[in-house]
Queue: 2 jobs
Job 1
Amino acid sequence: MVEMVSRPYERAFEKHALANPEVLCISADLTSSCEIDKFRDNHPDQFLSMGMAEQNMMSFCGGLGLAGYRPFIHTFGVFTYRRPYDQLMASIAYPRRKVRIMGFLPGITTPGGMTHQAIEDIAVMRSMPNMTILETGDATEVESICEAADSIDGPVYCRVLRGSMPRLFDTPIKVGEMRELSLGNDVLIVTAGITTEEAMRATKALEAAGVSVRHLHLHTIKPFNAEAILDHINAVKGGVITLENHVTEGGIGSLVAEVMADNGVGKKLRRLGLKDTYAHGGSRAYLMRYYGLDALALTQGVEDLLGQKLGITETDLAEARVDAVHSLAKAEGL
Amino acid sequence: MWNIAVKNERTTEDIALGIRRRVFEHAMRNNGGYLSQACSSAEQLAWLYNEELNLGAPTLPMIPKPFGGVPHADNPDYHTGAGYNGPFEPEYDRLFIAPAHYALVAYATLIETGRMAAEGLEMFNKDGSSVEMIGAEHSPGMEVHNGTLGIGLSTAAGLAWARKRKGEKGRVWVYMSDGEVQEGQTWEAIQCCAHHRIDNVKAIMDVNRQQCDGAMDSVMEVGDIKAKMETFGAVVVEVDAHNVNDMREAAKTKHDGKPLIILANSNPFHAMPILEERFPRLHYVRFKSEEERARMNISIAESLGVDPIDYAH
Ligand SMILES: Cc1ncc(C[n+]2csc(CCOP(=O)(O)OP(=O)(O)O)c2C)c(N)n1
């Protein structure tokens, strides 16, 4: 049984902020939704309420950065770049302000539908010069995200999980590295964020079906260690498959494709994720199935990649965790 | 089936009560929901649908269809949920619900005004349903996505300008929330309406002085909304959001060459006084314990004149 951890961000942020007085807690009217309500109540001097006004918030944080502060912006990921893209670019990314953007509810982890689902954030941030991108996939990564982000000499965008989540890893994020979760030699699976847990479930079934799996988990998406992944790509016979909680354009699938093309790797690549579509509102488990982001979609992708039926069915995959939309662990759906 | 004679058969006050009862029942069964928005906005939405809006009969089935995909070249049958507000004829009004999290209240309004079957609410936030928690443009009564707050008035202004140019009589109404005045876009929209003399756009804003984090004054003060809006070029009337006559009178206000914005000062626990216990965290009321749920059930049921909800079944 995996250990489930409740609200790791809440504790991690408080610990980090109290140890670093230049860190400021910035909120955009989603304070409890981003697990910083206790921080606001207990440390009002280090907390700034910006209201529902994201454009102003971005440039304001640019100003804070100019004065040497390191603001941690808290809101849903989607609200940190869609409306205030221009402000993010001009006031934060260009001048390399040390602004730490904590984007909650990445991808389809929210039932809020199109307007709440950050499904192209990685593509946007990857194309933004000077921006660093980190993504969390378990409780340990969320626990270490503040320190990791704050170690960056420049702006950082982080995809942060909230609420109850599994602990999959026992070492903190080391910026610039990647996690080697299995080292087989048939297929290379590359995942990040919530798709890693899916891939771990799929790996068991694939191994049982005789496929030797090499699985990498990415927490650092930009800058990216192309050389390290190239070794893994070269180590497998059957090709590479990526699974992301994001559109297949511009995310980790594209990233891997670029590395392969840049280095003339003549291997097959399958990119799984949202395929040129917006998503809609629903529970996470439903959306992962509907849009093909779960363990079953991955095993089917591997079959396609290898051109061979493996006969893996849902029952062969380890039990999925199901979070109730109205679970007690969460203050609300949003 | 829906028929035009249904309109005005019931009083707007009665419809508002019906809306609150439905939202209450839903929130009890689901251990929470956007309850406070029903308190503040029920009369406004009831008044719009029952009296003020000139809408034709719904063009979509009373029982909403399941989610039918998003706009895409490969999805030619895609349509929005606007058909619940009737056809897009030149003489009819259009409505945008700018704060899409008011969807639960808006769906209850559609039911109370005979535009959607009661089964529609049972599909709320269910996987594969079009009756989404945050109203999507394919959700009943919605014509565009508004879950990202602050974009509704601008869309309405554009549509209104275009309708004026085409000589259409129908007006464009926007339902707004006060949190939206914190977004710069709201001010750009008013300024644009004034500049282009767009006066077929009308808005009513639920001024409940609340937002996600609590009372707006504690999150980001917005000052005198009326004075600011007038300065930006709107005609603004303040009303008591729970007094239907006030709204009727306000809607008659002349606003040549300018948008009309009705600021409906509302009480976030109107008709459910026990919710005051939850102040200042009213945005999404989720019961903290079974004890609270049971207590609120009895108290709100009594306030609304219904039996407590048997939510265990
Ligand atoms: C651009 C944008 N930023 C943030 C949010 C998240 N959000 C949803 S509702 C809300 C504020 C709610 O205040 P108000 O609009 O006044 O609604 P009410 O309090 O009456 O429910 C926020 C910040 C959003 N939907 N859109």
Job 2
Amino acid sequence: MPEPTGPVHVEGEVVATKRVGAYRHLTLTAPGVPERFRAGNFVAVSVAGHVARRALWIHRVRASSAFGPTLDVVLEARGSGTQWLAAQPVGARVAITGPLGRPFALPKEAVSCLLVGEGYAAAPLFPLAERLRERGCAVSLVVSAPDESRLLSALEARRSARSVTVLTADGSVGQRGSVADHVDDLVRRSDADVVYAAGPTDTLRAAAGAAERAGAWSQVAVETAVPCGTGLCHGCPLPVVGEDGVDRVVRACAEGPVVRGDRVRWDAV
Amino acid sequence: MGRGVSAALPGPVMVAAGCGGTGRELEPFCGPDGLAGLDLATRSITLDARAGGPGPRVVEAPGGLVNAVGLPNPGLEHFLATELPWLVRAGARVFVSIAGATMGEYADLARRLSRAPGVAGLEVNVGAPDEVGGGLFEVREPFHAASVIAAVRREFPADRPVLAKLRPDVSRVVESARACHDAGATAVVIGNSVPAAFPDGRAGGLSGPALAPITLRCVGVVRRSVPAVPVIACGGVHDVASARTYLAAGAVAVQVGTALLHDPTTVARLRVALDPSHDLQEDA
Ligand SMILES: Cc1cc2nc3c(=O)[nH]c(=O)nc-3n(C[C@H](O)[C@H](O)[C@H](O)COP(=O)(O)O)c2cc1C
């Protein structure tokens, strides 16, 4: 059987919900989505009473559980849509489209990789770390957050990562400071050939810049509001420089969300 | 309306302009046959490439969306070289939506598209919400729309449909429909999104279910006032009932836009639900 490809639109079910610090972790069934997942993919979820979708990073997938294959997402309830989602109890049904977007590109060789994530947006780096380790890559993981309540737990990632660095802006746990403060040093110490980053624009920009200064590749997972998530509406512009050196505006959801860091026109984002 | 003409018209379900991506992104959600036999209006294509507007391009409003996407498209040349052949291979019935800054541009687009293999028809965007089109030929009066249609019709084979996509403005829509039909439009699409504003006051267009009652009023009044003009309804279609409302009001077809952004399988489901029940009364 060929591997299933392309996204599906399915009815999923909440099978677990758990508050972790400031975030809510949901475990969902979504038939066909976990099977097709690659690190860096996201899902678009429908919210009652809203026309636009909510895009959520896939944090992990389980090939099998008591409920069959499942996927986990991490929610920060910031608006009425994410609040509605965060309030969904076990057994609630939600329309899910996915997996969507271009995933992280994996190196062909066993190189050294630095993974830098901030807040809930660090979510896609955890399955990436596993894939990279399977390929024999040396993985250094950096999880950062404004404070401890917004720090994704790196406990499980310790199995995939050779080293884990924790940064909080307020110094409540780990080292104090932002990704921008530490990333050059981290790239140097990990001797990274590739830097993968996921988080707010400033974090991505800092990581991409540090990679470039060190002569490393970078892959960044951009976060833009995506009205549909599927590429249909052209509503999530991402300014980039094309392979041909020509400035373009692409769809963050379809040509991204993972793009080469050196291709993003950060000043125009 | 003769059999030949109505057979060439799309329906009963069609993808609305700008809401089907390049077609490729829609295909996975269209069932085993993909885009085969699907009537699809492309996003509006201009002669030169357009990057589109700044973000946010689309925000939510109660019951809908406000958009000012700015017609991002790769320009005619690139569209003809890449996107169109892919759509034709996928089996879609392609209605290329065209937009121009001048009458001459519309004519140019029509001429070059008349020679492109696989173009089922044209949809002429003469109903973009004011200001949102950014540099488009300004359609203030019904005769502006009609002159564009006449210019397009002169360049495009008579046996293939030209659809005039109008603004759903009840005070002008009858006049616009009549004038565009007289100028050679095979049918009118009613309509585009309604002029609206983003929360910061920026000009945009309202789409989605919130818009359906306005569109329905326009469809109804055009059907009653100028019954000879076939109407394709577009605005807020999201389920079988909302589609049937337009068909019951006399529309020959419906287009689905915003609903695809919410649920990309909408068109596939509506095609299945509406196909057998649809019979073109005009054909009898
Ligand atoms: C994101 C978006 C992009 C659109 N792009 C175009 C376009 O390129 N050309 C056009 O004629 N109409 C465009 N429209 C208008 C739709 O085709 C449709 O007329 C309108 O949204 C009302 O239908 P709906 O409620 O089903 O969306 C666009 C609408 C949206 C929401």
